[in-house]
Amino acid sequence: MLFRRTLALMALLGAPLSAQEMADAERDAFRAEVRAYLLENQEGPMDAIAVLETRREAAEAQSDQMLLSTYNDALFSDGHSYVGGNPEGDITIVEFMDYRCGYCKRAFPEVAELVENDGNIRYIIKELPILGEQSVLAARYAMSVKNIAGDDAYKTIHDTLMAFRGDVTDASLSELSDIFGYDHAAIQSEMSSEAVTTTLAENQRLAQQLNITGTPSFVFADQMLRGYVPLADMQALVRAHRENAG
Description:
Elements: H1 2-14, H2 24-40, H3 45-70, H4 72-76, E1 82-85, E2 91-97, H5 102-118, E3 121-127, H6 133-149, H7 151-163, H8 170-180, H9 184-191, H10 194-209, E4 217-220, E5 223-226, H11 231-245
Parallel strand pairs: 2-3
Antiparallel strand pairs: 1-3, 2-4, 4-5
């Protein structure tokens, strides 16, 4: 039993504690607290682990809130991201997404239902193409449509690409332009523009700063959610935020 406890203690103390998210002083203080707690509560290692997990989650949530505060403008008012839903909504949701991401496609109709049925959510889309060349091609195309034809055209293409199941190629994107009557030559030129390249780089840099490594990832007002979130959970988060704000 003592041997097992020793192994558990070593594993816990040696586990990474979000070095990117916690200052050195905070991490050292947290580990000191871990040692003290486990030494005082050796009779209940499982209880100790549960307490430590709760404290770790609280520390990460606090770190996320600090990050969101630091990068508030880049998240909520960068001047180039698509803003939908209710622009004057009482809650802002930001989604980092990839058109080739299966979980993004799964989340797409649920996010749309949440925004449409609620009526008081401001919804911001940030392209984060991380799944290869087709992801990048799709993102550049959608962003170029926005720059050339405006927000309504962008939303049409965004929704179409989220539902699209085939390969994203120059030919398939040209067909989309023909279907919706867009100037494909102008869009192609814009796809390699400095404006689109800069926006993609800014989105990628912001994701790194927020410790986002996958899609979809969401910001719900002042809370970070990395990964797919079911509709019922999103609705509960919105209700909780409004109750806390009230």
